[in-house]
Prior knowledge:
The chain is of the alpha+beta class. It has 4 domains: about 1-95, Rossmann fold, CATH 3.40.50; about 130-185, ATP-grasp fold, A domain (Dna Ligase, domain 1); about 195-325, ATP-grasp fold, B domain (D-amino Acid Aminotransferase, Chain A, domain 1, 2-Layer Sandwich), CATH 3.30.470; about 335-425, Glycinamide Ribonucleotide Synthetase, Chain A, domain 4 (Alpha-Beta Complex). The protein is built from 14 helices and 22 strands.
Amino acid sequence: MKVLVVGGGGREHALAWKIGQSKRVEQVFVAPGNAGTAQDDSAPIENVEIGDTDIAHLLAFAKKNSIGLTVVGPEASLAAGIVDAFSAEGLRIFGPNKQATELEASKVFCKNLLRHADVPTADFHTFRDAESALLFLDEREDSSLVIKADGLAAGKGVIVCANKAEALEAVKRITGSDEFGAAGKQLVIEDRLVGQEASVLAITDGHTILIMPAAQDHKPAHDGDKGPNTGGMGAYSPTPLVTDELMRSIEEKVLVPTVHQLKRMRRPFKGVLYAGLMITKQGLKVLEYNVRFGDPECQPLVMRLQSDLVDVLEAAADGRLDEAAEMVWDPRPAVCVVMASEGYPGEYTKGHPIRGLTEAAAVPNAKVFHAGTKLVDGQVVTNGGRVLGVTALGNSISAAKLQAYTAVKCIRWNGAWCRKDISDKALE
Length: 428
């Protein structure tokens, strides 16, 4: 079978690497891919110069090359309707259709669905313009709030505000600048939840749900969860925060009611259902949903996955996930550390040569997944804000962290930086 992976980030490199290990797969194409997928000789991977939202050319490529399964990484591709287009042509594709993708593409839609499905979440209000949002804030007592842009904003559309003044500024920033574009046309204002975050990803065909081990992302840019939100500065799996009992509660109170509510709304969901959760003193709460593999959560998860990922993705795409075997996981934890460009999540420069990748690849039980990289005259250079996801397994979380940071220390470029405390929450 030939498989097409759509996207060019760390998640897509990880998916292509794992899919390429399947005995059933002869070739993995990645569109557009990055320097890592171009050079990864551990699996039969080849880049294709087609953008991840160029649906017409992706569709033509899949037909011409007899692609047996297409796996979609980025939310932008899903929101653009790639699954609808491929399905209409009878091509097998893994991911939710455009209507179901609204669960991530619209924060307003997501919060309303959670309310109707009786899924626990923070109290919230939605607004169609800045004036009504500012008036609402003016009339409220000073409190800690979260302001969310309604649409897709590359993981940066959520602003946590300590007080009313910060909330007023956040509303003006989202609605009054070009930074968020169409994503900021509607707003959600919700109470700030206090607790620890966890990510639980599940594969579903709209009927059966296969839940993956819990992970913990690190959204704020700097150590100790300080600084602005990013697309994610690292992740580890599993997290001791999510016990077996809590996982059963997540399935019963979060995932199952959400899948059923989408079915009732005639938006049946196939793909990865990613619940961003906050574990509070008042109990479990849903922060948001994503509708695809998380980045960087995907990297430690695929490092731990021992069974054939293709079997599960294909079964979900075909609506026969009940026939698929349970996924088998390495009991060892995995830690992913994201190395970023200077200035990220703000402005940054590209094109810096990256050194030390060969040395990092030699670190036992470590794998460097590329995200924002490209090849220029055979040299790997930076091409994004989040550049690499350095991931490692270990017999304990501490051991996995040590291996990941040992590989990180091998890698250098002008302005490279990372958080130093990825996975430390597990040790507290």
